Amino acid sequence: MSDLKLLSSASRDHICINYLDFLAASCKKRWSFVDAIYGVMPIFGMVTKTPNKKAKDRKDDLPELALQVLSTQVSDEINIVRLITLARQLQITHFDILLPYTFSEQQIKIIHAEYGKPVSLKLQGDKLSIIVADAA
Q: What's the superkingdom here (predicted)?
């Protein structure tokens, strides 16, 4: 699946992730042993890039890395937490996620609790806007 479908930009600096497309790509992906480890223990797939990498380059890494940490074997809330964690490690502090359905307030509370760090989650229909506290 092309990165253009997985990650679209509403503007040069704004990221919009289509969560359903990531899950579909994850289902179709041929898994290697390393991919399976990333799916079970996503911390191994999280980013250890140097902080001097340009913002555009970090944005370009998101689709490939997200496919490593998202799993159809865990809840949507856990996958959203994994995306937030990945974005924070890539120093992406503001992005949207297009959801396949509107999350309930309970699901938003679960995301806040699981993430455990300051994060702003604003739900507008099936779009979740996320602002992560500065990664520094």
A: Bacteria
Distance of CA 33 to the CA centre of its chain: 22
Q: Note whether residue 107 is domain-resident.
A: yes
Total of domains in the chain: 1
For residue 129, being part of any structural domain is answered with: no
Flag whether 40 is in a domain.
yes
pLDDT in tens, 58-112: 677 788 888 888 888 889 999 999 999 999 999 899 999 999 999 999 999 999 9
**Which pTM does this prediction carry?**
0.72
* Residue 130 belongs to some domain of the structure: no
Rounded to 5°, angle at Cα 124 from 96 and 64:
20
Q: What is the pLDDT of residues 33-48, one digit of tens each?
A: 665 565 555 544 444 4
Cβ neighbourhood burial of 112 (10 Å; 0-12, 13-18, 19+): middle
